[in-house]
Amino acid sequence: MEALVTPTCPTPMATETPVLISGAGPTGLFAGILLAKMNIPCRIIEREFEISPLSKAVGIHARTQEILDMTDPSLLQELMDQGFMMPSFHIYYNGKLAGEIEALPIKESHFKKALCLIQNKTVKILADAFEKASGTKVDRGWELIDTKVVEGSSADGDSWVETMMRRAVVGTNKRAGEANQIFGTLELAEEDEEKRYEYEVVKSKYLIGADGGRSAVRHKINMPFPGRTRNVSMILFDGILDTTLDLEKMNVINGNGHRSVAVLPLGEKDRVRIVFDNGFLEPEEFELQKSKPITIEEFQKMLDDVVRPLQLKITKVNWLTYYRINERRAREYSYKGRIFLAGDAAHIHSPAGGQGMNTGLQDAYNLVWKMAMVINGTAPSTLLDSYSEERTAIGDEIIQLSSDTLESVWAGNLIQRCVKRVAVALAPILLPLAANRAPKMSMLGLRYYENSLNKSHKTQKASASDVGAIGCRARDGPLVPFLGRIDSGHNSDSEFSHVSNGPTDTSGKEGENRSNNSESNDGSNHDRQHSRTANSMTSDDTVRLHELMAHPGVFQILVFTGSLWKHRPAAASELVQSLECYLAEWRSRWPSSSGVPVEHNENKDSLRPQFMVHVLTTVSGSQAATAAQFLAARRNVVGEGKVHTDVGKMLHKRYGIDAAAKNEGKGAIVVVRPDSHIAYRVQGVGQSAWEDVHGYFESILI
User: Fold this and answer.
1) In this model, does residue 430 exceed pLDDT 50?
2) Where is 692: in which H helix or E strand?
3) Which of 169, 210, 349, 508 could form a disulfide with 514, with the two C-beta atoms 3.0–4.6 Å apart?
4) Which of 211-220, 455-464, 504-513, 604-613 has the lowest mean pLDDT?
5) In a 3-state reduction of DSSP, which class is residue 700?
6) What is the pTM of this model?
7) What is the rounded distance in angstroms from the CA atom of residue 145 to the CA atom of residue 219?
8) In what order do the strands lie in the sheet with 555-562?
């Protein structure tokens, strides 16, 4: 058995925790928040003593907003309060404004635009949320120097993770000669002779390596990180500009010498990120250039030469560095079923499209619920195998998307530049035609495919391209709680008309409401908070499906009855029997939150169910209403089979429940995973359909 690195110090302190997370960036912090909300204690360690002041990632896409909202609406609200919505683009050629391109509103989601917020603020908000949820702080200053999986010697052969870490007693962990790099290698085991360290060995069931592109975890488990280093060279700047440009817009300058400059707002007065096209450099050329740090004077001259006759005068520098793009993915995201890589530790790529941080957060969203269920004894350890299988495929897709995006916006040959110039002029015509690209950039189109977790029905075969297919994102839509009457006054022309908007953006200047959310038909914004509880809904309330699903770690069972009760009113009583029978059995057999409760978790609910059921109907006519009333009177608690009317049959359509009478009379049951992807579906809502759903759960759980 390979031993941990042995430091030259007294015997290190030994501690234990169910989950150790290395890295307190967005990915590690979000993983910690999710674990706390699922009552799984964890410990987050971070090499740096303070949150990095660098702006780094700035975009939070619609899909990420959805998962943050379903995790904790107040968390998303705080991010919105401090951020701003994606502004329009100003495109310049030869020093003149050639066009303004509005950011396309996203039709697929309640969240219409990307949210912009610099990463150091995002990290502070996430760190505060982790402390609130778990009652513990990030352990800063601790540097992981070695880790291994220890194979158990007991009869059951169980294994665990042992991690050695250290912290400088005085000063920081930075060693002599260590450079500030965005990506590179780091000799992790070396010590400075002048430094004194304290050491600790942590025993954990699992280790999540969320420690960035230079991941110590990835290095120590010798996980290959194949890919390429591109010859595209950039200079990145963060600071204050004095210019006549509108710095509240995204400015893209196609300048002299076939170079491009992007000037992006960072949410503070005159503060911007500049991405400067530094041309194509061979590796030795880049290393030679990087060996001498660029000065402000040098960069100002380079900027002037490219943007002239426009003027961009630098008045303050927060960050200035050379940067070269790496496109790499870890061969696997898991190691011996105990150590998992997430975020930049697992994948790195071009910043074009702003996919990096979002992908890391979604890695955590995929991983943590599986880990929690295994720790709780509800699912076999093999459930965790699906993490690497699903997320490596997503990693490949994101790397390709960011690469394609870089190619489309960066300086190219003469023909490419001419095409881009024409595209800007025709943008008002072309943009509506390019709307199908929005799900990719907003990450709403990312999906999984059939595997050991996502299963198709044995006899009801369907195509992977079908609407609402296995592995697709669980889509959102408006619902009206059924309270004994038919609500026919809701206009469904707008997808989220009359829907409470949850978190709202209040970051506009001088009271301007720059809300990211949908508007009602009369043009007024709904500003009601998402924080209301489901049991406080009144007959005038409209709710989104994702609001009902805002329970981390829970399987959501959606029962689509269509107009079943119009054809068979007696089916309501049958449905009550099935609901009561199977919910009771599932919750008894596979209880949730059986791990050690997180004592300071304000959202703690040790009786939180592992399964919730929502009945969605399109009732019409007196017989159907009578049947719905029967069910509503008996199952009137959200998650217990409460009946909601599907406004305009929107969700029936979005989940591929055919509105034709031949299928609408059957209905369907759709099982949604805790990370809001479709795992299983079956036609019908009768006894045999419930037996099929039960069989699905038996196939994936213990």
Assistant:
1) no
2) helix 687-700
3) 508
4) 504-513
5) helix
6) 0.88
7) 10
8) 543-544, 478-481, 640-646, 611-617, 555-562, 668-672, 678-683
